[in-house]
Amino acid sequence: MLDLESYLRRIEWVGPLAPDLATLTGLIQAHLCAIPFENLDVLLGRRISLDLGDIQRKLIGGRRGGYCFEQATLFDAVLQAIGFRTSCHLARVVLAAPRHLSSRTHLFVLVDLPEGRFVADPGFGGPAARGPVLLADIGASPATGTNHWFSFADGAWVLHGRDGATETELWVTELATDYPIDADVSNHFVSTHPASIFTTAIMMNRFTPDGRVSVMNRNVTLWRAGESQTWELADRRALRHLLAERFGIDLPEVESLTASGIPDWS
User: Fold this and answer.
1) Residue 259: what pLDDT?
2) Of 31, 89, 106, 148, which residue is the catalytic one?
3) Structural domain of residue 151, as residue ranges?
4) What is the domain count for the chain?
5) 80 within domain boundaries
């Protein structure tokens, strides 16, 4: 059973809890700033459970982060407890591979509101939208100022993202009827298969009110007020320090973490 009060304290939410667009927008923004995207448990050889109780113990009680299957499962439970009408769906991430080579390994939440259907996507990491995205066929690139939008083609919805002047297709979904067992299967692949990037690379992201901090293996990028700063982690002790300083996570175990995708750090 969801402990809604503990979740709200975790994301420091003190606003209203009406099942409306304003509340949905505020909750996503607060969630993204409070609960990081990270895959450290996979690299530490730990099983990723999608049981709601286990997710709460990790992301809320343990003040950890997680990836899409954990984050979307938790956020969906929160929205339903407030009174939103929701469903969870799988998508194919197409950032690095075309649709026909991408498996359905991303989970997001679809929310039905009087204004339309909106995608809430708290577990997509750095490319994620910082608010709900209307599921409507915008088609061509919209006006400057909109960083995420959808188009519809060949029976599927395509999420687009804009980063500066660069526009990218992020993920694709047919909005199939997905059950928890479907998420379990995809989660098992993501967290155990040697071909999954989650089993070979460190990936972390945390949003801040004026930017975000992202980690890909040893590379750290800090965005603040439209400017970026990058540096390289020297070793695992530097990773532990970064976790505490930028992500609010105290995890001594990372000093023995291995990741085969990091040169000279295996």
Assistant:
1) 86
2) 106
3) 4-194
4) 1
5) yes
121 is catalytic: yes
Beta strand ranges found along 41-132 (DSSP E): 85-93, 104-113, 116-120
The edge-to-edge listing of strands for the beta sheet with 211-216 is: 37-38, 203-208, 211-216, 219-224, 227-232
Catalytic (active site) residue 68: yes
Which residue out of 31, 41, 68, 160 is catalytically annotated?
68
Domain containing residue 91: CATH number: 3.30.2140.20
Q: Is the residue at 200 inside a domain?
A: no
**Token couple for 91:** 């998508």
Q: Evaluate whether residue 206 is within a structural domain.
A: no
Is residue 259 assigned to a domain?
no
pLDDT tens digits, residue range 2-36? 999 999 999 999 999 999 999 999 999 999 999 99
**Cα–Cα distance between 191 and 131 in angstroms, integer?**
27
The one catalytic residue among 31, 41, 88, 121: 121
